[in-house]
User: Which sequence fits this backbone?
């Protein structure tokens, strides 16, 4: 937001829920926070050991990521998507939120003639904020019938001015899957770099993991995180991979501003990427919780609550979303997110993050009498 005195940050979306916290806290057992996608389950013991025993606390870690980390990222990409990405086209980032929030700025410096960031109209709010912080036009792309980007709706002028386009599949908050082949093709046709945020890719419920990298590396960058996959949101370990020229540019500019994942966190990332078993176990946990909470909230509210195609969020039409949020806080002691946090297209929706332990979800059900 701008004023005569310069940029004034808008209220952080989740701060708007503070008024409902006392309603939820009034319940014995306190608030059950289902508003933020913060993993609550423990990471593997091997990750904690690696974090404690890396002996990498004293030196400056490489901004692009240690070679062991980048090699494990490369191996994981091959296992998951059956593609080979050259090691030089892979780099670490300090979690993916900072990457989403800062990349438009770096790209604007690279191509000052472009001034537009395209992003999903119903989406994680940092896509829009990253554009605003870079002094760019933030142009929301509406969803198509399947919930992906409606590429045909993008005007010729917006395509010409586009610095980049964001895809998010599975989507936060909707869980919808994008047609990543079509998005990659659109980007190449129009000369627009495509950035594909794939941080929920381990949690697809009816299909194998999908990455935009499966449709070629030219002109695309995939962005991944260990936060959701391995319950490591506090370590801030993410990575990006794809187009050689774009990745090289970002590696160099990020190096100059000291964007470095701490050494112990990089060592823990190696341990997490080696281990697929804990991810399979976590998938089963999230799938069970999605089914459980869809049933609980559906019975309590009388609403139709469908399961997502991917991710660990329930996303459903609640009519008056803020009234629903207040009622659930009052009666169930749970906080959820009204859909307008994710754009005007979600104003009648609710997002529920099924991240809390089973016992906490069962406590909500007990309070609601379900």
Assistant:
């Amino acid at each position: 937001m701008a004023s005569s005195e310069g940029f004034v940050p808008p209220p952080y979306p989740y701060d708007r829920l503070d008024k409902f916290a006392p309603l939820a806290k009034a319940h014995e057992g306190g608030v059950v926070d289902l508003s933020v996608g913060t993993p609550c389950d423990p990471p593997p013991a091997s990750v904690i050991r690696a974090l404690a025993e890396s002996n990498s606390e004293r030196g400056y870690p490489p901004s692009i990521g240690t070679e062991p980390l980048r090699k494990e990222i490369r191996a994981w990409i091959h296992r998951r998507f059956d593609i080979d990405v050259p090691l030089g086209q892979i780099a670490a980032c300090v979690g993916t939120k900072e990457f989403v929030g800062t990349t438009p700025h770096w790209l604007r410096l690279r191509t000052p003639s472009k001034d537009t960031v395209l992003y999903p109209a119903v989406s994680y709010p940092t896509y829009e904020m990253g554009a605003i912080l870079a002094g760019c036009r933030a142009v929301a792309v509406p969803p198509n019938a399947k919930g992906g980007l409606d590429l045909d709706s993008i005007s010729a002028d917006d395509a010409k001015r586009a610095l980049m386009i964001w895809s998010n599949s599975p989507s936060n908050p909707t869980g919808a899957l994008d047609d990543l082949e079509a998005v990659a093709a659109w980007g190449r046709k129009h000369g627009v770099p495509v950035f594909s945020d794939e941080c929920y890719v381990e949690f697809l419920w009816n299909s194998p993991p999908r990455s935009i990298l499966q449709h070629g590396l030219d002109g695309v960058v995939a962005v991944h995180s260990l936060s959701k996959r391995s319950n490591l949101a506090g370590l801030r370990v993410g990575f990006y991979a794809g187009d050689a020229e774009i990745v090289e540019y970002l590696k160099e500019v990020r190096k100059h501003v000291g964007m470095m994942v701490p050494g112990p966190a990089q060592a823990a990332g190696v341990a997490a990427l080696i281990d697929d078993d804990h991810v399979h176990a976590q998938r089963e946990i999230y799938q069970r919780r999605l089914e459980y909470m869809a049933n609980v909230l559906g019975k309590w509210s009388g609403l139709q609550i469908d399961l997502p195609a991917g991710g660990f969020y329930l996303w459903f039409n609640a009519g008056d979303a803020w009234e629903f949020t207040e009622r659930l806080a009052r009666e169930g002691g749970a906080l959820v997110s009204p859909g307008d946090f994710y754009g005007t297209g979600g104003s009648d929706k609710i997002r529920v993050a099924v991240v809390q332990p089973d016992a906490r979800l069962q406590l909500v059900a007990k309070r609601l009498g379900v």
Q: What stands out?
A: The chain has a mean pLDDT of 95. The chain has two domains: 2-42+278-368, 45-274. The radius of gyration is 20 Å. The longest helix spans residues 277-301.
